[in-house]
Amino acid sequence: MKLAALSCLAMLLLGASVSRLQAAELKIATVDVREIFDKWKYATESKEKLEKAREALERENNERLAVINEYQMMRSKMHQKYHADKDSVSAEEKAKLDRQFVSLGRDAFALEENRRDFFSKAKRAHDREVSSQSKLILDRITEAVQVYALEKKYDMVIEMGGYTTRNVPLFVHLDSAQDITAVIIKRLNESGN
């Protein structure tokens, strides 16, 4: 039993030392994808364009909301006027005010439904565009990193911007790893898009 445990321990130690030897021979590079997202002209222009589209959507939604609020204010004033003048207003006039009040309420409700539907659909479309654009950018970054890694014969490229679930950097230190982030940013910016 002791012999089996000792031989198992010896195998583990041998495996660990072989792994260290192999790791020492690996050519490793690091890259920070978040930094590339922040410094690549195409990515920053795309981010600005998407932000402007989001702002335009918010502006349109707020304009629609302002119209609905005007309807609500008109109803509120009509309600106050009705209660202030209810003793001096004829039955015919009261019926007319009541119809206007109900009509304004229906119109406001319909406008609110329309606004919600518009905003919901437009927001989903915008979110899909953001997702699509992010995927495109990430794919282009990945491709650029792969091309560079093959050219320079790196065995491994590690993304250094990763964090654990406790918001601690995934890799704190990699001995003899070369950071290629700046090279990738330069190449992507020179590619013209």
UniProtKB/TrEMBL annotation:
<feature type="signal peptide">
    <location>
        <begin position="1"/>
        <end position="23"/>
    </location>
</feature>
<dbReference type="GO" id="GO:0051082">
    <property type="term" value="F:unfolded protein binding"/>
</dbReference>
<keyword id="KW-0732">Signal</keyword>
<keyword id="KW-0175">Coiled coil</keyword>
<dbReference type="InterPro" id="IPR024930">
    <property type="entry name" value="Skp_dom_sf"/>
</dbReference>
<feature type="coiled-coil region">
    <location>
        <begin position="40"/>
        <end position="70"/>
    </location>
</feature>
<dbReference type="Pfam" id="PF03938">
    <property type="entry name" value="OmpH"/>
</dbReference>
<dbReference type="GO" id="GO:0050821">
    <property type="term" value="P:protein stabilization"/>
</dbReference>
<dbReference type="GO" id="GO:0005829">
    <property type="term" value="C:cytosol"/>
</dbReference>
<protein>
    <recommendedName>
        <fullName>OmpH family outer membrane protein</fullName>
    </recommendedName>
</protein>
<comment type="similarity">
    <text>Belongs to the Skp family.</text>
</comment>
<dbReference type="InterPro" id="IPR005632">
    <property type="entry name" value="Chaperone_Skp"/>
</dbReference>
